[in-house]
Amino acid sequence: MSLLLTGRPGIGKTTVLRAAAHKLAALHLVGFYTEEIRENRERLGFRLVTFTGEHAVIAHIRLPPPRVSKYGVDVAAIDRFATCDADDARHAARSDCRVGSRAIRDS
Questions:
Q1: Domains present along the chain, CATH in parentheses
Q2: What are 67-70's contacts with CB under 8 Å, separation 24+?
Q3: Are 37 and 45 in contact (CB under 8 A)?
Q4: How confident is the model at residue 57 (pLDDT cuts 50, 70, 90)?
Q5: Does the CA dihedral 50-102-10-62 come out positive or negative?
Q6: Mean model confidence pLDDT for the chain
Q7: pLDDT digit string (tens) for 12-48?
Q8: d(C-alpha 50, C-alpha 56), whole Å
C-alpha cells in the first residue's frame, strides 16, 4: 500500500500522516515524511523523519549546493533514508519512500 498526500501548505498533510501512522503503528510502517524546519515563522529547511524515529536535515538555507530554490540539499542523506529495506518492506505496510530522492534528482 502506498500513500501520497498533496495540498497547499498549512492544510494539515503532515498532521494527518502522523495521526494515521500512530493508529497504524502495529503494522510497522516503513518509509518517511518531511517536516519544515522553522525559526521565528521563517522556513529554513526540511527534515526527513522515518516511521522508526530516525531523522536528518535534507534541505536547509545554510547547506551547500546542489540547490533546489533557496535550499541546499543533502542528497546523500535523502538517499540513505529513501532506500527502503526490501526485507522490512515485504513484511510491513510501506509508504513509497523513493519519491523524495527522485524528485530532488529531477529538479
A1: 13-106 (3.40.50.300)
A2: 68/104, 68/107
A3: yes
A4: very high
A5: positive
A6: 80
A7: 988 998 998 899 888 888 888 889 999 999 999 999 9
A8: 9
